[in-house]
Amino acid sequence: xxxxxxxxxxxxxxxxxxxxxxxxxxxxxxxxxxxxxxxxxxxxxxxxxxxxxxxxxxxxxxxxxxxxxxxxxxxxxxxxxxxxxxxxxxxxxxxxxxxxxxx
Amino acid sequence: xxxxxxxxxxxxxxxxxxxxxxxxxxxxxxxxxxxxxxxxxxxxxxxxxxxxxxxxxxxxxxxxxxxxxxxxxxxxxxxxxxxxxxxxxxxxxxxxxxxxxxxxxxxxxxxxxxxxxxxxxxxxxxxxxxxxxxxxxxxxxxxxxxxxxxxxx
Lengths: 103, 153
Known about the structure:
- Chain A is mainly β.
- In chain A, 0% of the residues lie in helices and 50% in strands.
- Chain A is elongated and about 55 Å long.
- In chain B, 23% of the residues lie in helices and 38% in strands.
- The termini of chain B are far apart.
- The interface between A and B is large, with 33 and 39 residues.
- Strand 5 (70-76) of chain A pairs antiparallel with strand 7 of chain B, so a sheet runs across the interface.
- Chain B: This is Thiosulfate oxidation carrier protein SoxY.
């Protein structure tokens, strides 16, 4: 199941720093379980971050992004109170969107 | 069938129609699609080629930051910054991983060309940052030593 993300967005002047911590196993498909069977790959493929519906970051991930991915980036033109929405989609079609307000 | 589901179906079918009719570019709906070929490339050269960077130059404008020695290869913090103007794309590649491309980012105008994330590393390897700025491909590298592999090694 998709667990909630932790999103923190802080504005310094007009620059907003966004930090996202996603809860996801990011299974590579190369690990084996105790019986020797390969654990199927399960990982986030795309992630989009939007500020008030404007895309501010668009990421694609492979299997080698670590478990519970962390992401941080900065963008200009944001203000306190703006809404940040982050959406990811994984290779099994699971998706999740979480929102935060710029502080 | 409840009302929400009905709405959802209607919305998706309308969106789907708009996409097939060419009214909306899929990239505008969900910015960039995941490209299997690029992420499944088995070697650094193949991955760079699949990204579309035929020619690239080592640049001082691009910086890869990470630990010199990572104790745990499963969680290696890596950040990439680019001082090159009009940086529009950043890719993080771990040379010796089974699939070198770890993550890539499209940087819209207004977003700073600086991203941090955490990657898995199978062992000691060079980590490369491939950047597209002003139509040119720039690269920077850093060796990160791994004392404990991140891929079950």
